[in-house]
Amino acid sequence: MPGRRVAVTGLGVICALGKNTSEMYSALRAGRPGISPLQLVDPTKLRFQNGAEVQGFDPGEHFPGSLQDHLDRFAQFSVVAARQAVQDSGIPLSGELREKTVIATGSCVGGQATQDIGFVDLYQRGRGRVHPLTIPKVMGNAGAGHISMEFGITGPAFNVSTACSSSNHAIGQAFHMIRSGMAEAAIAGGGEAPFSLGLLKAWEAMRVISPDTCRPFSKNRLGMILGEGAGMLVLEPLDAARSRGAKIYGEVVGFGMSADAHHLTAPSALGAASAMRRALNDAGISPDQIGYINAHGTGTAANDPTESRAIRDVFGAHADRLAVSSTKSMHGHGLGAAGALEAIATFLALREGYLPPTANYQEPDPECDLDYVPNEARPAQVQWALSNSFAFGGLNAVLAFRTNPR
Q1: Which of 105, 223, 305, 317 has the fewest Cβ atoms nearer than 10 Å?
Q2: 44 and 154: one domain?
Q3: Percent of the chain with pLDDT over 70
Q4: Residue 296 annotated to the active site
Q5: Which residue range is the domain that position 109 belongs to?
Q6: Catalytic residue among 15, 108, 164, 368
Q7: What is the C-alpha separation between 250 and 53, in angstroms, rounded?
């Protein structure tokens, strides 16, 4: 589709793999999962014991005084990642640019820790009131609001809540706004902090959480591992980035969305394939130009063969030449933040020339018959990549990326 080219000039991340992009890339390069025994909740109250938590996070290091009490953990992560991304980009967010910058975040469960505390106060402790900041801490758009105040950005700001596709939808909308001229810059991504007992019990009831670890596409996979954190990207017109001499990680070149219209939780290969095709069409590229796919790859019995079939449907014979990996095997399933974490992992792969592996892979599955980059990162020079996100509700969002054009 004609319009301005959109560069990614800043990345910021905090997740189980590290508190910045350097630490995250080191873990991805080493194929080192950030999955460990739960510490934020009492695991004896759950059927599963492990998660991908952010280790050693001290809010006081990032939010002075009482400010930390105004933000739930997911919003804290979102602001920390946004600070990193803006600093990394060097973009001068001042004057008129503040009015023309969009903030697009993705979060599907919002302030779960805050909500849990309120319910404990009401129903367990018998208190007659909850914390007066409960609503602004719980709301899913809290990250977007605090990022806006952090940088004085007065342009469009919003949060997308489409379950596990939230961040991809947010990044894609920001991309389209810049490409069309509706905005001159964007901070886009997502944040999530799902480790509260109430929400974990809800996931437990679905019987999709692995009792040990996440093994996407491996025949002996047992389910997903939940993760937390945030990822943020700074997007701007490619010409503007070049004119100010910015470091450029690559380009967002396409965005595809679809709905399965099939089932609330069961995935559809047709819907996933449709989103991938639409991303390719939006980018104006053919399937055989793609060299790598960061898969949705949850490690569940249903998702992995369905996604594999969808990839074969879209790419045909070229599917045998594709590298496909799931970084959820290392940073866990970040729910609304998943797409942002995976977009950052993909841009780091394109920039550094190493494809992240699917960790914990043990046993080939006849229904998952692609090259999943098992267990070890692989040197590769890839120019074009896709990043897949498929959500409950049958809501799909796929981003297409290009390495930095010389």
Answers
A1: 317
A2: yes
A3: 99
A4: yes
A5: 6-243
A6: 164
A7: 29
